[in-house]
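PROTEIN DESIGN WORKSHEET
SECTION A - STRUCTURE
LENGTH: 232
TOKENS:
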């Protein structure tokens, strides 16, 4: 890897600023001041900037218990971002693996591994996502049976050309549902219940595939274990 790229990958320096730091003699490779930005460095080399050792950031896999009022976006808006809750270097490289609306709480996965993210989100892998849905109107009896059947067959949402993939619905309480989806359309849960004449009051994602929040407090995050990463 070129030395200027290595610096931009391991510090907050841009490639342009990295070249200036090199020109000022601030960077050493194996103890020797190096000013040529095209110098090749690898894992065997010890690179320092202002005498602080630098190391490449590897691929990262995290889960976050997202609170309400936090957006899953890279751009800055009126709301704090999910990555603003994470204290890691180069945190802006982390991307959410399937987003949640700003008012939706629960499990968010974040990674800088694009292939892993695709495996989790691709509908063909049938990775179930379980939501706890609080409804405005209770569902029971024949009305519930009709909605369960409709969701299992697929619902044609407003503005869509094809129906949703089969989803699994069960009631925990008269106004609290458990919905399992195998895809992730825009505002899908809210739109599905709107299509059957109900309104979602609150929404919380409990799990993605085999991963659940467990006892992770709201607003906190943790790294996934090797076993959890390999589960997808």
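SECTION B - SEQUENCE
RESIDUE ASSIGNMENT:
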């Amino acid at each position: 890897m070129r030395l200027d790229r290595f610096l931009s990958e391991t510090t907050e320096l841009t490639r342009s600023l990295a070249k200036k730091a090199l020109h000022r003699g601030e960077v050493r490779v194996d103890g020797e001041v190096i000013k040529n930005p095209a110098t090749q460095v690898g894992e065997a080399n010890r690179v320092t900037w202002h005498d602080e050792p630098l190391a490449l950031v590897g691929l990262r896999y995290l889960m976050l218990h997202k609170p309400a009022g936090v957006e899953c976006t890279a751009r800055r808006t009126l709301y704090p971002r999910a990555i603003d809750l994470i204290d890691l270097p180069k945190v802006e490289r982390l991307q959410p693996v399937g987003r949640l609306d700003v008012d939706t709480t629960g499990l968010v996965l974040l990674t800088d591994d694009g292939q892993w993210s695709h495996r989790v989100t691709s509908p063909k892998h049938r990775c179930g996502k379980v939501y706890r849905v609080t409804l405005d109107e209770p569902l029971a009896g024949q009305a519930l049976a009709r909605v369960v059947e409709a969701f299992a067959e697929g619902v044609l949402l407003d503005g869509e050309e094809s129906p949703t993939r089969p989803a699994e619905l069960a009631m925990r309480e008269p106004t609290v549902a458990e919905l399992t989806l195998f895809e992730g359309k825009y505002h899908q849960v809210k739109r599905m219940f709107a299509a059957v004449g109900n309104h979602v009051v609150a929404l919380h994602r409990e799990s993605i595939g085999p991963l659940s929040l467990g006892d992770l407090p709201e607003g906190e995050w943790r790294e996934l274990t090797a076993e959890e990463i390999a589960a997808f």
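SECTION C - NOTES
Residues 46 and 99 are 38 Å apart (CA to CA).
Helices lie at 3-10, 15-23, 114-121, 141-153, 188-195, 226-230.
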